[in-house]
């Protein structure tokens, strides 16, 4: 009878303890609080946007990042445990080597030792009782950070029921570190921006859009265009081809119901191209070899929707790493 009472007591005690804690996945948190040595940390995906996989084992939950990476979480003594499986993601190169650390109030609570690609994921289980600040660190193991794709898989924090996911990533510096747009808003009156010179080879396709800010709708004109080029008055896009080499001085104009603007523009037809520094976006620093058709189109749309195109941002470059993709022949490179 006493034994049964004791078992019942344990069950009730366990139920009470369970009711006093909740589990929050690491991938539920605001990952802008996590730094990565390359790329952007991804929830439920590797750093390159692929399904999480370590040593041939796949995971539905977790965070993919890249050494050197760190994240600080505010526990405020309201957490009891942190568990995870860690390792090098299977997408990495064989030379990848990293080391994971779990820090509590500036002390090492757990460290993995050096781990490499192909090794089985290492289990993490850390007591967080009386810990105010938790740190998740991934080092490059002292041999450089090439291909150091790190995964925190099935990472879970057991915390007090009063704690929310946003509480964990709040910082005392948050108010002073919020992103602010300091660039003045463009005036409603037209202003022509972008390059003042453009180079193209004789007979090659010509494509240039007049970059202009101002209140829409706006119309465009161009005086002195060489033979072979035409301007779309509604979009400001100049297209065509010029056969005869030379330098052509053009006057660009933009007009809306408030006013107008004009600007000199030189077209150089010859052997020299790229006469101004390109302003644009390259896929490598964001997607590396995980670039695909959809991501390129989204980047191009962002240039237009955000208004960057009106300030002279014109290039969306696809890094040559796209060629390793099995469907690379289907990747649209123009349009």
Return residue spans where pLDDT drops below 50 for at least 5 consecutive residues. 9-19, 172-176, 331-335
| General shape | elongated
Order of helices and strands: HEEEEEEEEEEEEEHHEEEEEEEEEEHHE
Number of strands: 24
- Strand fraction equals 35-45%
Which class best fits the helix and strand makeup?
mainly beta
The end-to-end span amounts to 80 Å
The radius of gyration over CA amounts to: 28 Å
Question: How many helix segments?
Answer: 5
**Major beta sheet summary:** 6 strands, antiparallel
What is the helix content?
10-25%
Average the pLDDT over all residues and give the rounded result: 87
Annotate the secondary structure layout:
Elements: H1 2-19, E1 22-25, E2 34-35, E3 42-43, E4 52-54, E5 57-59, E6 62-66, E7 69-74, E8 79-88, E9 97-104, E10 107-116, E11 122-127, E12 133-139, E13 149-159, H2 165-169, H3 174-177, E14 191-193, E15 197-200, E16 205-209, E17 211-213, E18 219-223, E19 229-232, E20 237-241, E21 246-255, E22 260-269, E23 280-282, H4 284-287, H5 293-305, E24 315-317
Parallel strand pairs: 15-22, 23-24
Antiparallel strand pairs: 1-13, 2-7, 3-6, 4-5, 6-13, 7-12, 8-11, 8-13, 9-10, 9-12, 14-17, 16-20, 18-21, 19-20, 21-22
